[in-house]
From TrEMBL:
It comes from the Bacteria. This is Sulphur transport domain-containing protein. Keywords: Cell inner membrane, Cell membrane, Membrane, Transmembrane, Transmembrane helix, Transport. The keyword Transmembrane applies. It comes from Limnospira platensis NIES-46. It is found in: Cell inner membrane. The chain crosses the membrane at residues 23-44, 65-83, 95-113, 134-155. Belongs to the TsuA/YedE (TC 9.B.102) family. Its main location: membrane. Pfam families: Sulf_transp (PF04143). It is a multi-pass membrane protein.
């Protein structure tokens, strides 16, 4: 049995176990992500890599409107999920906004350096049995595990 975390830096709503895990929502989300990636590949011949889409959209390398529509769909879908439901499905957090912004820039730097992100490599690349994507996913997941361990058990942030 996993014990509840009682450190003061976690919110009261944080659950240290899987008792309340909503597997149906996770399954539906996974199906929708897979379906959208498959449809984009089937109808546009494009990989659903978000970092590549954003880069192509903001640098205006392409006049393809689908990039902006896909990004808009991500934002609208997240807003509906968070604010359109009767109760918020996301537990509140007390993360420091500055650290979240720094983390976001580091993730952006990593996706640029790795020539792709979790959606491009993890969802689409692994689905196409790409060895390059497998190495990328193993690299960023290992880095994520180490970072979480350091943040929660060494620095206790």
């Amino acid at each position: 049995m996993v014990q509840h975390l009682t450190n003061s830096h976690y919110t009261d709503d944080f659950r240290g176990n899987m008792a309340d895990f909503d597997w149906i929502s996770a399954l539906m989300g996974g199906i929708l992500i897979g379906l959208s990636a498959t449809l984009l590949l089937a109808f546009n011949g494009r990989i659903a890599g978000i970092s590549g889409m954003v880069n192509g959209a903001i640098t205006f390398k392409s006049q393809e409107a689908w990039r902006w529509l896909f990004i808009l769909g991500l934002i609208v879908g997240a807003a509906i999920y968070e604010y359109g439901l009767p109760t918020s499905p996301t537990p509140p957090s007390n993360f420091v906004p500055v650290l979240m912004i720094i983390g976001g820039f580091l993730v952006g730097f990593g996706t640029r350096m790795g020539n792709g992100c979790t959606s491009g490599h993890g969802v689409c690349g692994l689905g196409r049995f790409s060895m390059r994507s497998l190495i990328a996913v193993l690299s960023f997941m290992t880095t994520a595990f180490i970072t979480v361990f350091i943040m929660r058990h060494v620095l206790v942030l």
